[in-house]
User: Fold this.
Amino acid sequence: MDIVYLLIPLSVVLVFFIGMAFWWSLRGGQFDDLEGPAHRILMDDDKPDAG
Amino acid sequence: MCCAGCAAVAQAIVDNGLVSYYRQRSALPARDATVPQSLRDLAAYDVLPPGNAAADGDIREAALILEGINCAACVWLIEGRVMQIPGVVAFEINFTSHRARVRWQPARTRLSEIIATIAAIGYRAYPYDRDRAEQARRGERNRALLRLFVAGFGMMQVMMYLVPVYLAAGDMTADVEQLMRLASLALTAPVVFYSAFPFFAGAWRDLRNGRPGMDVPVALGIGAAFAASVLATLRGTDAVYFDSVTMFVFLLLAARYFEMTARAKSLATQEQLALRVPQVAERLSDWPASHAAEKVPALALHEGDHVRIATGATVPADGIVVDGTGELDEALLTGEAKPQMRRPGETLTGGSFNLGNPLVMRVTGVGESTRLAAILRLADRAAAARPRLALAADRVARYFVSALLVVAAAVAVIWMRIDPAHALAVTVAVLVVSCPCALSLATPAVLGAAGGSLHARGVLVTRSDAIEGLARATDVVFDKTGTLTTGRMHLRDVAVLGGEDRSACLAIAAALEAGSIHPVARALTAVAENEIDAAQRRQVGSITHVAGGGVEAVIEGRRLRIGTPAYVGQLCGQALPATIAGVAEDCTVVMLGDEQGWLAQFTLADRVRPAARELVAALRKGGLRLHLVSGDRFASVQHVARELDIDCVRAVATPADKCAYVQRLQQNGALVVMVGDGVNDAAGLGAAQVSVAMGGGADVASGNSDVVLLDGRLDGLATAFDTARRALRIVRQNLAWAFAYNALAIPLAACGLVTPLLAGVGMATSSALVIANALRLLRIERKLSTPVYARTVTVVE
Assistant:
């Protein structure tokens, strides 16, 4: 059971990193449009030079 | 395909190699794709207002609002088409907000060309001011999202630490348990100090103002539970409440976030409505020598310019009347409900509505003080006005909070005497278990959900009070023209009565009606535009509009009138011609005459909207009394009433009559919902408890009303009534639940019978129940709306 003494502090640190990652993606504008990109990936553009 | 317009659009799509639009679209575009008048003079947009376009070397950038987007295929289609225009450097659409940013090289293309291209494939684009308010909103949203994320993630992780502790129930070694507590503390601290900060700030503000609101017990609960838990952790004994604290904060923040998103969405739609027409002003560059009007962006006006303000239009800037006398509705700006009379020499305030005659104004002030002020006011109203229902809940909550604080204090004192060791734990349990959360969520969550589901059905609720009003309504008063009928009149017949021939009569009629946005005027000018060549166009002097009557003007020295037979008859002084008797009763008759006699009789027909019959049937089934009040002839009003089976009918009603009609109903105890679209309904709409306007109607109607039917979709109104009733029922259920829960839980907690786990679970269940109950509104709505979008999809190969 000694491993919990390492794992639990580690999980706390990990949570902080995940929080930082979220803050970074928020700043990068990844949450500005939550619907469009999901559809856009499905739209095959036959003529890439047009886009 | 239904018309040449569709064919042209389809052809444009196929020609440009965008056929896969038809494979990929998941919803049909709205049928009403007529290009508004303001888009016809696109060149006006090339003179861009300073706030909109940003110049960057030889590349310019502008922000556009797009209308008509239904699904992702639309976005793809517009992006694909616009990017084909040579000179467009970048074009990006935000699917959620329906806004776009375009960057182009002015040397190779123009903004008007881009907008025209978008219009050619059936969508509408308007340039708009990307002001700082939007930036601020985006920042606020991102901060709220981050707070929510921190609380949510903290909640999950704390749960992960504490659930084993609960399950082990003492089997865990003391140091592992302590480690779990410390880890929970480390994750709860940011939730309390960062995520819950708005609650503490709110509570502090409330206390300073001496008006304790919901934030006080929330902050107290969070603070007390957190402090007690920290103490317990340091001492290594007692139970901790970290899980309850994080969950509490997360649920409250989630509710606030959804409320904020719903508000931002309706705000964006409202701004869109507000921006639609008046951004373009009609400048008379050569006044008074000529009446030729050119359309320019309102922000491109300069001091000293002469501007024409049509009936139902918004005054684009501050100025002084130089020609015409009219009534102005300044309610938006001053709160003065009575229309104000303005004569030549008197001042006009930008943002007020012209209810009366077209005016000519000399601009004296432009910029920030005018249209922007009106938009901000609109936005403020939506943001600041708390619905009455929520206010009532708040008031109840305030008593509840005061009572709760007294009880908590009493519990603390009593337990101090009985068992000082447990006094803190019991007091905290009372604060945590009592769920002000459920009480304060009960109403806003429901109103937010109702507004959201209605928005998806094309009904924009601009004032949350309207939901309560719709639910309690007893009477619905409809306007006829433009509301129950399509409002697009078609000229069926012209009977020449005097010495002038058909085309001369049409030319005169079109000249008289040029400044008006009344459907009759639109039909006449549309026909005239097609049939009459420029040489026959007339110059018109001193136009007088009589609301509910018609128009009088002087053309080449002749006094002419167009309008209702009664109004024109006053000028002609002759008996009504025999031809008028032969007119079918569903037609509207407009007469043209001069001082010598009748000139022509125009017969116009309007069609009942396809959705009107179902709406009327649905409302009648809901037990509502229906009324039809119109300024039109008795026979044509009667005809529509009979077709739709409406009993109470009032014809030939002036705007004042409509208002009086509504007030008389109210005196008999009725709660009146008025549905209208036009300038002449404005008074009635103002008098009714709930006003519903057609989205495509006159500015004055949609700008002030509580509910706007976007794109003139009448079918949404029946849903609105239905949803409103369900919403009110759910609010009652929620409040009943919150009270019942508290009545049971608080005494138990005060007796020390509620364990920390039970307190946390009870609080969370109660809040989740309230939210889930509110979300039922959305769920049922989605089921209802599927058939609408599941219509056949045409494939063009």
Q: What stands out?
A: The mean pLDDT of chain B is 74. The two ends of chain B are 14 Å apart (CA to CA). The domain at 280-364 of chain B is CATH 2.70.150.10 (Calcium-transporting ATPase, cytoplasmic transduction domain A).
